[in-house]
Amino acid sequence: MTRGATRRFGVLAALACAAGSGCSGGSMAVGLMEDVMPGARARLAAEALAADTPDGRREAIVTMSQQRWWGLRPAALRAYALIARTRAEEPTVRCVALRALGRAGADAMPHADDILSALGETDSPHVRWDAAVALDGIQSGGDPSSLARIISALVTGSGDAPPPENADDLAAAWPDKVIPHLMAHLKWDPKRQAGEPSLDVRRACARALRNWRRTDVVVVLASAMENDEDFAVRKEAHDALVAVVGRDRGWAESDWEKDMTMLEPLPSGPRPWWDPLGVFVGSGDAGDDPGDG
Questions:
Q1: Is residue 86 over pLDDT 70?
Q2: What residue numbers bound the domain in which 275 lies?
Q3: What DSSP element (H or E) covers 188?
């Protein structure tokens, strides 16, 4: 391994060790990297002392996550997840770690619990916002069905859960695990001061929900579109409804009642220029899924 590669992996361990704030989280991060660089514990621990400021850790995470060939590999994602769930870490560092997980698409699905923990963070709306954005990025940036093919590589190494017996079950459980949390953070009752007070978090949750064609998603989005106190949230909920249903039915909650019980197939898209008569692309190909879940 080249000296440059060694330094990159050292910085990765430094990020996670710093997130551990000198406790077991730091030593765990070094252990996570041993599957990448066997026998390099001393070097990695020494490098960990270099990233002793939040600014340094933020900059390193941003730089790393932009390098897909090594910055979004399983070992790196485990380090980001460790940082994201460490409440003692500076909030902006946790935010960039969450954004890095969101960039990884479906590869970050095994770290759902860490992201959902950040979404439930009561002290920092910024952390909650980036957690919602990360969930959106994971769902829209990767095909959940691909998880079955890569799960054995994603959930190995120290600090992760044991490999599931059925990787398909993990992929199938993703929507039911994530959607209720997004729905809960889209709701806000100003009179009772109950729910999610940050309009940015509510907007991010509405946008993330556009990824699932489900009737229960339509119900929550339609309610937010009509009842939220902030127009930006209502607009985001409306746009998400259009994406889910495939049609713009209006701005009243009652306009979407039919879609709350059954979703029609998505309307067909325009035919490609090379097949104007639909010989090769059938008229229903763009909307054969009638599903509500």
A1: yes
A2: 185-293
A3: strand 188-189
